[in-house]
Amino acid sequence: MEFVTKKEDNKHLLILVHGLNGSRDTWIGNDQRFVEILNGKDLIQENFDIALFNYGTKIFKINWLTKIINLIKGFFKNRPKEDLKGFNVGIKSIADSLEFETRNTASKYQSISFISHSMGGLVTKKALTIMDSAVREKVRLFISLSVPHLGAYLANIGKLLLGNNPQIIDLQAMGEFTTELNEHYSNLPEKPRIIYQSGNQDTVVRRQAAIPPNVRREDTISTRDDHFSVVLIKDSNNNSLLDFILKEIDTAILPMIYGDAEVPEGTPFKFFIESFVSRIGARVDFIGFTETELNTKLRNGKISSPNFKDFLIKVGELAINKIPEYSIEKEYGTSNFTIKTEKI
Fold it and tell me: For the whole model, what pTM was predicted?
């Protein structure tokens, strides 16, 4: 993992994953790239570290003779191993590395989000299926940019032209890899919110592959991009894709942002919570309370907490009349909460 932004106080991590034949240059290097654009936004600067997950990928594979020559050069020139030219491995092997690097750094962060392009989306999706649930629960958002979730027919042609390139094989439309991956992913007990983008000029990954069946319309973005222009932001002040991504990132971390509020004397318990939660674009349901308990008045006070769930618990501690103890449950992948009494 290559961190391009890292601050001690940031509690959220944004990981960018490039696609087939891509590199770190997909994301960074000039004022139209994601890293430069995102680093100019207060939301990102104040909350997120940004990391690039880079891996070896070439459309034209290195043959066995080249591998041997590179290995010999490495020994005689005593070059560090990481300076040797690599060769393609399959998506699963790449995903294993992404899973390890995510797991290795996850403990520092409250949330993790991915922006992945093309084959990088399949790498991300595969990594999610092999993550420990405790790590995967931290993954709040997955932005899927021109990702061939059902494979790409161009890869079927590529296999004929390029031979047994393992990445091209994994990318085949209706192939064994994508079929098994989608089945495994659909059976996960908890999943991050995925936003699926497709470009109407994309001839590499068609809409029907980029946006799988049964995906909700509100989870999709259709842009005027081809397969490669989607990772360029030519006008950051007028880019609907960028605006949508920033909105989704903001929504994903809102429930984890520091809670700090004054409580006016006599404010009803339910009213105060609903008012506060609505300001952050979330929703709350109450289960097990009587009407009298929900309308219990609160004492004047100030509530501060670095954790949103703890914040909601502290509201009840200001109740003038005792109300039942309660727990907070969050609906996975959303900003919706349930406040449930312990008497149920």
Answer: 0.75
